[in-house]
Structures are given as structure tokens and as C-alpha cells.
Amino acid sequence: MAGYELEPIGRVESALTDLESAPRQGDEGAPDAWLAIDEAMAPGLRDLAIGDEVIVLTWLDRGRRDELTTHPRGDQNRPVQGVFSTRSPDRPNPIGLHTVVILAIEGTRLRVRNLEAIDRTPILDIKPILEPRSER
Amino acid sequence: MAGYELEPIGRVESALTDLESAPRQGDEGAPDAWLAIDEAMAPGLRDLAIGDEVIVLTWLDRGRRDELTTHPRGDQNRPVQGVFSTRSPDRPNPIGLHTVVILAIEGTRLRVRNLEAIDRTPILDIKPILEPRSER
Questions:
Q1: For the segment B79-104, what is each residue's pLDDT rounded down to a tens digit?
Q2: How far apart are CA A43 and CA B127, in angstroms?
Q3: What is the model's pTM?
Q4: Is the minimum CB–CB distance between A26 and chain B shorter than 8 Å?
């Protein structure tokens, strides 16, 4: 199973410290935050630039991995849905996807806009948005 | 580290059987393919429907996890870039993101259009596209 083990590349540093205050999606008032990437990852970051729109992948380590159905947005008044048709953090592999814009770069620390992830969330990957899909 | 271990929810079934014949991105001729999801995941799939556009997350298990720089698209004539500004499968946590449309559903098997992933690739998650970002 070694091939299926994640190695976080860094952590989120954010004013969001609990799930209750976390907005449901990034455009509902999530604060700007830092991606504190490990120094060892510096060569991988070198072509990222201020203004780039990227997808940040996180590990939603408070997600309940045994849940296959959920009330969307945690609202008990909404009908239960299968988790694969929702963005709930409760799912078998709780990987979060966050589309953000890079606001500043300080060494291996990236300041990003509107990140819906609580403080200390492990970061797994950063990928460019492909538009048009011409790069890999 | 138990919290960082991935548990695939299924496998890709595709006519693509090697990296050489795999297109670089899904719109460059990737074939339709099946997502063969484990029966145990059925409750999580129940609200997915034909025509839905979803993001499939895969584990690119042939990726080289120790690479932090790469020639984009494997082209030695292109200048080296940091992996986090590319979609290279060679990266510390080789998670693939694939935007696809569901063409058919047979039990826990989903037929999808244009999937750039080779046969037997482990599937980690399925998420809806959020547009507008109103759901979670």
C-alpha cells in the first residue's frame, strides 16, 4: 500500500480555525491565506507567478471517511444525497479542490485569495488551471 | 499516518493500456472509458445522472514521486518547469484530475467521455462541477 500513501507538501496558514466558521465555498467569504510549502519543494514551485490561477489540493483531515451519504452543506433540512454528487468533506478519500489566485510569493510561501480551508490543513498538490487544455 | 492513506473506490477500464498511447489531455483524443466503482460505494453514487459533468480524481500510480521539475508534455525540447506549474503525472502526490461527462450508468459502473487515464488506474473520488459555486 506504500504507493497509496500521501505525503503533504505543506500546510495552510489561515485565520479560519474551525469548521463552524468555515464558509461552504470559497466565494462565500473565505479569507485570503498562506500556503506554507516545505522548503524541500522549492524546485517544484519555481515557475508559479503572482496572478496565476491554480488548483490547490488539500487533505480534509477532519472529514468522516465512512460516510457515503450526507445532507448537503450540513443542512439537516436538505434531503440526503450520495457524497459523490456533493462537495462534502465527508467521503472515502477527503481530498479538497480549491481554485485560487496567487497574490504574493515569499520563498516557498504563497499568499492566495479566498481559500476555504481551515488552519493547518495539509496541502497535497498545486496544479495550473488548463484553459485552453493545451498543457501538461 | 493512517489518516493519509488512500483507499481507491474503483478502477478505470479503458482501451488505453500504456503511457505512450495516452493522450496528454482529455480533449486530444482520449477514449470513452468505464469507471468501475466498488459495489460497496453504491450509496455514494445514487444521485449521479447521465449527462452530469463531474471531476474524477485518480491516482497516477506510474508517476515518479521524486521529480520536482519536468519537461512539459514529456518533450525534451521544452524548457524544464517546476512540476506545480504543470499537469505532469510526475509529482510528489500524483493525483489526476479529469473533467468528464457521464454517458451511461450500469449499477456501480459509469461510462464517461474522453478519459485520459490508462486501464486499471485507481479511482479516488468523484465530485460535481460547481457552477455556480452554490453547493457543497
A1: 999 999 999 999 999 999 999 999 99
A2: 30
A3: 0.90
A4: yes
